[in-house]
Amino acid sequence: MTTLETGSDGWWLSKQGPEWVREDDHYRVTFWWRDPAGTEQTSPLKRVWIYITGVTDHHHNARPQTLVRIAGTDVWQWQGEFSPTWRGSYCFIPSTHEDDFAETVFATDPPDRMALREGWRKLLPHAVADPLNRQHWRGGRGHPVSALEMPEAPVQPGWDRLDTAYRPPHCIAWQSTRLGNTRRVWIFTTGEDTPHERPLAVLLDGQFWAESMPVWPALTALTEQGQLPPAVYVLIDVIDTVHRSHELPCNPDFWVAVQQELLPEVHKLAPFSDRADRTVVAGQSFGGLSALYAGLHWPARFGCVLSQSGSFWWPHRGGKQDGLILEQLKNHQLSAQGLRIVLEAGRREPLIYRACQALYAELQHTRQPVIWRPVEGGHDALCWRGGLTQGLMTLWQPII
Questions:
Q1: What are phi and psi of 136, to 5 degrees?
Q2: In whole angstroms, how far apart are CA 124 and each of 2, 50, 92, 100?
Q3: Which of 158, 244, 305, 396 could form a disulfide with 222 if both were Cys (CB 3.0 to 4.6 A apart)?
Q4: Tell me, what's the pLDDT at 398?
Q5: What b/e string do you get for 33-56 counting C-beta neighbours within 10 Å, with b at 16 or more?
Q6: Which residue has better confidence, 110 or 91?
Q7: Overall average pLDDT of the 258-262 stretch
Q8: Strand pairing partners for 30?
Q9: Considering the entire predicted model, what is its pTM?
Q10: What residue ranges do the domains of the chain occupy?
Q11: Per-residue model confidence as pLDDT tens digits over 64-81
Q12: Checking phi first, is residue 226 left (phi over 0); if not, alpha (psi -120 to 50) or beta?
């Protein structure tokens, strides 16, 4: 058998993304990246940062990691250990600089969180997906990412049926008088029988689930399989980061506008049930915070909550104080009475994970049906997509 020379064209043709081998209770994964400028003699690159959600990112508060060049070649590589159930996204960031991060990032272990966050904020616009990996999309911050799924990663309902034919969603422009802005809203229906009895799901960060990681075939497949009932899905665009940061974290005006302006308009186009126990509001990160906020404040409209990686630390980013919702629950200013709630967070997003655990513990005092799902992953849409479909199945299960 002929051994290919490392970095040769034939050697690169043999690569199809990260490679892994089993070692005891984990997998050792090797990532590869080809320097388009050649070897160290011809390339200006000093670093090729690897940003793995939940492993080398700011959510995990880990020191930045860079691939290492194999001397005399165009090959950069990095190795890490992953559990057999791991699922997550990653990207590469080639750099010609030596000082992409402040010195404080490397001065302590763990690194200074805010300095680390700032360094990645500046670098991520220059990220590239893995050209060897066919599974890629644009992440929540707009940069390209690729998928890594270990052999024992949990099944993600519906996402293995992305070739399922579906009826295209209807996209409208919602002009909100209360909010003073206009945004896109996608209306997606599965099934026409008894339209006024169809359950409703409101999905926040709708532009992501409509465009970056389209959810339509997964929802259609699960409906055809009887895992989800025929339903109406309303996906709400955030407009941009500024509007998202203002409207999603515990903003009453946003949810009043949704109920008084948007939902009546949607109902004219796609009738749905007005029963709270048939209505899900779902979101991730700030959206996960917003989803529970909506349920706690308007339980007569939103009786089912799916919160994934909810930012329940808000507004105290340091995590040393209870977030607003947890504080209000403890002080009996809010009640979860009557709600059905699914909470999900990744073990590799420590601040959010701890905040979700604290919230779950407090919700236990209410004796409400709360389902807590720890995930082997980070702050990552590749994990959220399975939790989204599974959460809908769980929350609507009694009515199927």
A1: -150, 160
A2: 39, 10, 9, 11
A3: 158
A4: 65
A5: bebeeeebeebebebbbbbbbbbb
A6: 91
A7: 98
A8: 19, 79
A9: 0.92
A10: 9-149, 170-399
A11: 999 999 999 999 999 999
A12: left
CATH superfamily of domain region 9-149: Immunoglobulins (2.60.40.10)
CA–CA separation, 307 vs 289, rounded Å?
7
Burial class of residue 98, CB neighbours in 10 A (0-12, 13-18, 19+): exposed
The helix-helix angle for 381-396 and 216-224 (nearest 10°) equals 30
For residue 130, give Cα distances in angstroms to 93, 127, 135, 216: 10, 10, 9, 25
189: which 2 tokens? 């229906």
Q: Could you say which of 3.40.50.1820, 3.30.420.40, 3.30.450.20, 3.40.50.720 is the CATH number of the domain covering 170-399?
A: 3.40.50.1820
CA distance 248 to 254: 7
Distance CA 231, CA 196 (A): 10
3-state helix, strand, coil in the chain (%, to 5): 30, 25, 45
Cα 284 from Cα 286, distance rounded (Å) = 6
Nearest in space to 288 (alpha carbons), one of 237, 340, 335, 341: 341
Q: Pull the structure tokens for residue 231.
A: 């339903």
* Spatial CB neighbours of 193, under 8 Å, sequence gap ≥ 6: 230
**Could you give the CA distance from residue 343 to residue 361 in angstroms, rounded to a whole number?**
11
Question: What 8-state DSSP symbol labels residue 54?
Answer: T
Please state the separation of Cα 302 from the chain's center in Å: 22
Mean pLDDT confidence for 279-297: 98
383, two tokens: 């994990």
> Beta strand 47-52 with 65-66: parallel, antiparallel or unpaired?
antiparallel
235 forms bridges with which residues in the sheet? 186, 203
- Residue 225's nearest CA partner among 400, 39, 2 is 400
